[in-house]
Description:
The protein is 45% helix and 11% strand. By secondary structure, the protein is α/β, with parallel strands linked by helices. The chain has a six-stranded mixed β-sheet with strand order 1-3-2-4-5-6, sandwiched between helices. 45% of the residues are buried. Residues 11-35 have low confidence and may be disordered.
Amino acid sequence: MSRQTLLLLMASILTILVIAVVVKAIQPAPDRTTQHILEYGAEYTGDARPTLRILMIGNSHLRRGAIASKVAELANSDSDACPYHLITGFYGQDGAMLIDHWNRTRAKAALTEGEWDRLLLQDASWSTIFPAAKFDETTRNWIELARAHNVEPALITTWARDNSNPMYSAVPVFNADRNLMQGVVTRRHADTAATLGIGTVPVGPAWRLAWSNSDLPTLFHRDGNHTNTLSQWLTALTIYHYLCEQPDRMPASVLPEEVTPHAPIIWAAVLGARGQERKSVENPSEIDALALSATKALQ
């Protein structure tokens, strides 16, 4: 191969590499915001049950694993277990707190411009103690907006981060203990809901019951915060149970094979969390003091 041919070949390869870099650079970044409402369940036609339209507003806790889709699938796959045909919608953005959604327009438009019966609000677990999140005030704003449009609101009590999550370094008072953090999260959701006269969906309490069972694999993604396949179905089942008026029987199985062996444990956690939001908080005064200390640490 001549020197000239070699130079031409190298120039061609360099050109191809430059084009590849440019193409990658101009491609849009993966979108972590739902630009429109993702809606599920409408494909179940001919269902004689009354229809409930549910809007969920949250962040990656609900987006990952398409929790709203799973809830609709659970309710609509077994008409004997749930008295409603559910159509579920989701609007969210990764990393967003409810205050972020409130300060923007798109989430509010999703609520006010749709025809919804219920609104489920999901905030980050740390929002309950993070002063800038204004958890109580923001929740009240959402509740008032929902009621003004004849939509029944509720709070999803979310789950604490796993012990290994680096966020605990910002709040040493929790001693990197997810049980302590869950106590605060549960207490804050329960108190806020009681003050505003709304219900809570006890997802966090269900997680706590589940992770306390040593026979169950981890519920956490490797980041110590988000869901894995098992906890996605635990979360969906807890929301399903709340919306479907607390059936005692698990719906006809739509669970994937990797989750099915653990179904009895996660369903027991769902049932055990029912009505336990306030009762599950041990030593409320100590939890309140812990929450206050954590909030001061983040100011």
